[in-house]
């Protein structure tokens, strides 16, 4: 989806998200729901260092309940990428209810006045996005139709970064004082594997699954193979699904098969290491994290791959069926 169209979609969603933020879903609502969160200041070093800083903010999501007449149902929080709420995220948010799973399509950008962060013109910290998903988790747990022990997260690209890092015990303990955690973490082509965080091999003991195209030149798969191997060796339940000849965004049927985006920031040749809490440096040069680092290039390929998307749906369905203890559902 072109960035201009993504901006229009984001503006439409924001216009629909009316009403004050809520602190409970005990009345059983569905549809657009706004809630309170925090915006963590840029550059975000303080958040990684453990400082409790942030300004009050709101975010919203669209809650879709499956057509299940009675009983509690599992849920998945769907987290968008750097372009904001777009077609790929919308696809998952509307597909999963057909499998008996509620979805909460979380928009972290619109209420903050952010259109997109792919080009670096606007920014949002990892701390802000992690706070959003844990606030959404706490909120969904109050809904009478949702099983609070069966809420998973599925994120795309930058949302995949959120899906992976929300599994870190380091952040889970900090952002969920009640000890609540996600039932599973599903990350599509996550923008996370080029960064080594402190204690990134200490995960909440639930399944973490990465879904990645072998031809992705934006968030390349090699570092994700290395990360998964390292974290699995530390005793965590983590695995990577690889899809041949698939590019970034292969799960978006609304996209063309191959499109070059010339203006997006591409850090796929970088590797940063969190040297001390909050201090990210380049692994080789030891220079502090900067958008001006020569390793960051411009441009990346995105594109739909029908075969990869079909297989990814089967893989996601199998993971969620096992995690949530669902009966096998009809293929869609």
Give keywords.
332 residues, alpha/beta, Rossmann fold, 13 strands, globular
Task: Please describe what this structure looks like.
The chain is an alpha/beta fold and 332 residues long. It has a single domain, classed as Rossmann fold (3-Layer(aba) Sandwich). It is built from eight helices and 13 strands. An eight-stranded mixed β-sheet has the order 1-2-4-3-5-6-8-9, with helices on both faces. Strands 7-11-12 form a three-stranded mixed β-sheet, with no helix packed on it. It has a two-stranded antiparallel ribbon with strand order 10-13. The longest helix is centred in the last third of the chain and has 19 residues. It is globular. It starts with a helix and ends in an 8-residue tail after the last helix. The N terminus is likely disordered.
Please state how the strands of the largest beta sheet are arranged side by side: 1-2-4-3-5-6-8-9
Q: Give the overall shape.
A: globular
- Largest β-sheet summary: 8 strands, mixed
- Say what the CATH topology is: Rossmann fold
Estimated structural class = alpha/beta
Strand content: 25-35%
| CATH level-four homologous superfamily name | Alpha/Beta hydrolase fold, catalytic domain
Q: Which architecture does the CATH hierarchy give at level 2? A: 3-Layer(aba) Sandwich
Number of domains: 1
**Structure summary, number of beta strands:** 13
